[in-house]
Amino acid sequence: MAYERASDSGQRRSQEWTLAAETEYRFELDAGTSLAIKLLRGRAEIFGSELVEGKIYLFYEECKAAVFTWQGCTIEISQPSTEYISEETPMSAYANLHVAFEGMRVRALLDAQVTAHPEKATREDLEENRDGPHDAPRVLILGPENSGKTTITKILVNYATRAGQDWCPMLVNVDPGEGASMLPGTLLAAPISTPLQTSTPAHTLGSAATSAPSHISSNALLPLGYWYGHAETKRNPLLMDRLIRNLGGNIWDRWDTDLRGRASGLIVDTPSSFSTSSAANNEHRHNLIKACVDAFRINVILVVGHEKLNVEMQRMYGSRVTVVKIPKSGGVVELDSLYRARVHKYQMHSYMYGERVNPPLGLPSLADASPLTGYIIGGEQSTDLTLAPLSSVINFDDLSIWRIGEETMAPTSALPIGAARVVSEMQPLHIDPSLPGSGLYNAVLAILAPPHPDEVERYDEEILDLTVTGFVVVTALDIPNKRLTILSPNQGSLSGRTAILGSFEWQE
Amino acid sequence: MSLYPQSQAYGQMQNPPMGYPQPVAPPGNYHYPPPPPAQPYHVDPHTFRRDYTAQLAELTVNSRPIIQNLSMIAQDHTHYADVVTQCIEAHIRRVPPWMKLPAFYLLDAISKNVYDPYARHFSTVVVRLFIDTYEQVDPSTRSKMIEMLTTWRNGAPSGKELFGVITQLAIERHIWPDDASRNVAVSSSPKGPRRRINRRQRRRQSSSRSPPGSSGISAPQVLSELEIVLNQKERAFQLNPYDKVAQNQIAILHQLRKLVVQGVSQEELGQILHQMRTTLSQPQSVPPPAAIPPPSAPMPPPHYGRPPFPPGSSNHLSAAAPQVSYPPAFSQQVYQQPKPEQVAVPDVANVSTVPPPPPVENIASIFSALVKAGLVTGSSSSTPTGAGATAREPANRPVNSAETATETDKQYRKAILSAQVKLNSADIIRQRTVLPQFLYDQLPGQCKHCGIRFSDSSIGKQKMQDHMDMHFRQNRKAGQATGRGHSRGWFISVEDWTNDSEVDIKGKGRAGAPRSMKAAAAADAAKVDAELRALYVVVPPGDEAKRLSCPICNERLEPEFMEDDEEWVWKNAVNKDDKIFHATCHAEAALSKTALAVRLRSEVSSRSRSRTPEARRTPPKYDSPSPSRGVKRKAEDDESKTSQPSEQSERTPPMKKVAISPTE
């Protein structure tokens, strides 16, 4: 099926693969390598985002992905680390899911249109809509670690944007270890109107807006995010619960005026800790699932390849929510914590400095490439995707830095009998950078939106309900002179802002 | 002005194929001009030439995506302008006549959009190329070429001839051998202060001299230009069927054409021709170009802003030219009054505060002038008395397109529901092959840049056009931004996010979205402001000399003469409770709802009259959107609400955004 051939230059070895219908070519890159894929004939897609014939797509930073084809195709590739073709994919099931969701969307849209403009509705419309009301698909995806939840989220969102119906599904990420279009530690929601691109694990679910022009709107997202600050849900489940409910409230506010957005529904990607039961976190786990179901008004729960969880969900929510067990893809790669740590570095670097790509050996470098070469990096044709952050020195007083709850929180059961907690999980604590052990050096801080302008409207825990404006990193701490050196993504002033410390650190 | 096919023509043959096979000849058959001297670039010129020629070979039909793609490549490779020029010239000379026009559109697009250095390069070859092609093609292509030629008259970013006056004249002389095009030379002669002609003086001139353009204008020439304008208007009208202005203009143009066919005097021909060209260069009346955005954001000043004088009379004009400096926006306005009776213009002290009349007046006024002159029997139904008023109507999106949109929704709904996929674990894993049909078969049009697909319905084509325009804009931005560093933006606030649905859906440049929200707010404000300013109150007979001030801002209301209605009016004025207010002031006061403003409104205006009008003016707030990030529209409103009464109460001069015409 595959044969090697020497390319024109003689140095570069490229390979052509011919894929039969409904098969996929899977690849995994090692650190420091990149891969170029060109679609020669036929139609192909990567996690639901279609490839253009003749363009050269670049993948880098240990990207692991698959080129799938519904009707067969021929691709040319260069230098992957691990590669194989699989004929067993769950794509047909995912496609069925998508078609079922489309059915819900079109009915929900008709419903919304008839409700909004009853005078315009034809008899036929009303007839079709008689067994209403119809709900848009609001999907919660659950599954154990390495079951491909994020990929399924991506495929379902991408198919919705490709329907040609101007859908704008809401992508919600409540996995604080994931980061989506922001950084790990955030819970966020972003409406998606063009397919999410795949090129690097730093941007699995789109990337946030920069000042550079972009051709794909999913590379210039304006997500709404709350800072949780930790990768693990068990660190502060109460805070998670609150942030999830905040996120849900805002989504419904937005949908008040956006009929088509509401009809497009939402898809929630969850952390694996929602699905792996252990005695210690079972209560939190159920509380967080319930928070999602309530806040986003979930009506479909997808359980990826997990019998027991499926039964559990059927029992708990089966009466009001459709619970569907879906197959897991065999292409899922087991990811270890070291890999996740490297991905976190890629994400931080990409947030501050943009993309850094070197095409595989033998291909012209990005600087020399003409548009005719057709390089596509994460959907963008631009050859310069680097960003310029700003390093600045500020006084301790310019930024008010907080932490939510104690850094190390003993479980309530470990406290002496009768003793109450001195600091609750939800209490904001001010951090004095001049004290030793503040934990600020190399720390990632989330800059929050300004508090309510009206003093009367403010409250003690308002800081928990403020959304994220951006992220900065403390790169140096000068205690004698009371100064911080801060790396921030752009030139915006930080003075007077509020920041929250989490448990993430980053060093270049 | 778009010369490119509108949605109806998208992807179709401009001309019958006449049995030619699709030219997919291998590149080896092409004849290459000798390669230019080797240049130290990374992509070597031979490769570039080969690639570009290969892509050019695909330009067999009038296809916007191909033209845009080719012009984007040209834009990225200005250092190979000579190669691009040679490739295009070779292509035009090589291909059969029916394939030449699309290539000319490409030449046109590159020259207008990139301009430098392409216009320079093309200007050396375009004369022969145009004339040779013109002689080979059929009449319908000819008229399209003439249409394109006329846009070259002011196609350069400066508003001058795209390829220079000599080139333009050389082509026009050939196409219209009767030397009628010499007025191009007049119009492109140094403008400077002569363009800044006081409106009154210009009127006096037009009354004192003989009607312009009376030498050597042939009826066929006028007719051909008339057809061009008419075509443009009709296409614009098709795009936007609820544009009453366009409808009116089309009706007028039809009447004019009938008139010319019936035969009119040289003098009238000159007038018509002149007006025609003025309208042609009034881009506001034409919808934004569907194909390629104009070369620069501000539209070039109309090129035929001055009447086409016979060559001998130009010294008369320059002698009379005053040295009064008027803002450029004013000098763009064309006040051509073919009818001497209207010349009695009052002595208006401050002409420059007059908001420019809607462009529709150009056609409307010539028609009404001709009606008065007895040339045309004006039927009341088509007489554009309300043309100026309709110009204010927002160009609503056509209702019928919304209807077809629900129709498309319905078809899609039926198709999706007929798949009957049930949402349960058993049905989900059943093998079906329904999805590819939705992903590919029903969306045949694919963007060659990012792979997004569109249906082939008219809505789908329109969406695809918008999408291609988006790519073009982003490429353009990328080209302009080289050298400037980019950075990650801040995320938007909850308020912006929850109200932001429109911005996120349309697939526009996300990067500037927080600003574009502000821009939208500013555009809204500007629109409201323009609507307010267009309001007027007719001055009661005998009150023309009466001094009147707006009770809110204390500035004088200046009476002006409305040509359409032939009445004296106070512009930007409303009559509330028998008092005349500035419309903008009144609206703002109504908004502020503060007791003070209410009191001011109900107060007798006599107190205000004694006050000295305040000359100091601040620019309108929406002209300088605050660069700070978090400021929201609401906040600005609050600011204006609170700041206004305090100014009033302190009796400080009105620091207001009223009574400022956009011409300042």
UniProtKB/TrEMBL annotation, chain A:
<dbReference type="InterPro" id="IPR038239">
    <property type="entry name" value="Clp1_N_sf"/>
</dbReference>
<feature type="region of interest" description="Disordered">
    <location>
        <begin position="117"/>
        <end position="143"/>
    </location>
</feature>
<dbReference type="InterPro" id="IPR032319">
    <property type="entry name" value="CLP1_P"/>
</dbReference>
<dbReference type="InterPro" id="IPR032324">
    <property type="entry name" value="Clp1_N"/>
</dbReference>
<dbReference type="InterPro" id="IPR010655">
    <property type="entry name" value="Clp1_C"/>
</dbReference>
<feature type="binding site">
    <location>
        <position position="64"/>
    </location>
    <ligand>
        <name>ATP</name>
    </ligand>
</feature>
<feature type="domain" description="Clp1 C-terminal">
    <location>
        <begin position="387"/>
        <end position="508"/>
    </location>
</feature>
<dbReference type="InterPro" id="IPR045116">
    <property type="entry name" value="Clp1/Grc3"/>
</dbReference>
<keyword id="KW-0547">Nucleotide-binding</keyword>
<dbReference type="Pfam" id="PF06807">
    <property type="entry name" value="Clp1"/>
</dbReference>
<feature type="domain" description="Clp1 P-loop">
    <location>
        <begin position="143"/>
        <end position="354"/>
    </location>
</feature>
<dbReference type="GO" id="GO:0005849">
    <property type="term" value="C:mRNA cleavage factor complex"/>
</dbReference>
<feature type="binding site">
    <location>
        <position position="24"/>
    </location>
    <ligand>
        <name>ATP</name>
    </ligand>
</feature>
<dbReference type="InterPro" id="IPR028606">
    <property type="entry name" value="Clp1"/>
</dbReference>
<comment type="function">
    <text>Required for endonucleolytic cleavage during polyadenylation-dependent pre-mRNA 3'-end formation.</text>
</comment>
<feature type="domain" description="Clp1 N-terminal">
    <location>
        <begin position="18"/>
        <end position="108"/>
    </location>
</feature>
<dbReference type="GO" id="GO:0051731">
    <property type="term" value="F:polynucleotide 5'-hydroxyl-kinase activity"/>
</dbReference>
<dbReference type="GO" id="GO:0031124">
    <property type="term" value="P:mRNA 3'-end processing"/>
</dbReference>
<comment type="similarity">
    <text>Belongs to the Clp1 family. Clp1 subfamily.</text>
</comment>
<feature type="binding site">
    <location>
        <begin position="146"/>
        <end position="151"/>
    </location>
    <ligand>
        <name>ATP</name>
    </ligand>
</feature>
<feature type="compositionally biased region" description="Basic and acidic residues">
    <location>
        <begin position="117"/>
        <end position="137"/>
    </location>
</feature>
<dbReference type="InterPro" id="IPR038238">
    <property type="entry name" value="Clp1_C_sf"/>
</dbReference>
UniProtKB/TrEMBL annotation, chain B:
<dbReference type="GO" id="GO:0006369">
    <property type="term" value="P:termination of RNA polymerase II transcription"/>
</dbReference>
<feature type="region of interest" description="Disordered">
    <location>
        <begin position="279"/>
        <end position="304"/>
    </location>
</feature>
<feature type="compositionally biased region" description="Basic residues">
    <location>
        <begin position="192"/>
        <end position="206"/>
    </location>
</feature>
<feature type="compositionally biased region" description="Pro residues">
    <location>
        <begin position="285"/>
        <end position="304"/>
    </location>
</feature>
<dbReference type="InterPro" id="IPR047415">
    <property type="entry name" value="Pcf11_CID"/>
</dbReference>
<dbReference type="GO" id="GO:0031124">
    <property type="term" value="P:mRNA 3'-end processing"/>
</dbReference>
<dbReference type="GO" id="GO:0003729">
    <property type="term" value="F:mRNA binding"/>
</dbReference>
<feature type="compositionally biased region" description="Basic and acidic residues">
    <location>
        <begin position="600"/>
        <end position="617"/>
    </location>
</feature>
<feature type="region of interest" description="Disordered">
    <location>
        <begin position="379"/>
        <end position="408"/>
    </location>
</feature>
<dbReference type="GO" id="GO:0000993">
    <property type="term" value="F:RNA polymerase II complex binding"/>
</dbReference>
<feature type="region of interest" description="Disordered">
    <location>
        <begin position="182"/>
        <end position="218"/>
    </location>
</feature>
<dbReference type="InterPro" id="IPR008942">
    <property type="entry name" value="ENTH_VHS"/>
</dbReference>
<dbReference type="InterPro" id="IPR006569">
    <property type="entry name" value="CID_dom"/>
</dbReference>
<dbReference type="GO" id="GO:0005737">
    <property type="term" value="C:cytoplasm"/>
</dbReference>
<feature type="region of interest" description="Disordered">
    <location>
        <begin position="600"/>
        <end position="664"/>
    </location>
</feature>
<dbReference type="Pfam" id="PF04818">
    <property type="entry name" value="CID"/>
</dbReference>
<feature type="domain" description="CID">
    <location>
        <begin position="44"/>
        <end position="179"/>
    </location>
</feature>
<dbReference type="Pfam" id="PF21936">
    <property type="entry name" value="Pcf11_C"/>
</dbReference>
<feature type="compositionally biased region" description="Low complexity">
    <location>
        <begin position="379"/>
        <end position="391"/>
    </location>
</feature>
<protein>
    <recommendedName>
        <fullName>CID domain-containing protein</fullName>
    </recommendedName>
</protein>
<dbReference type="InterPro" id="IPR054127">
    <property type="entry name" value="Pcf11_C"/>
</dbReference>
<dbReference type="GO" id="GO:0005849">
    <property type="term" value="C:mRNA cleavage factor complex"/>
</dbReference>
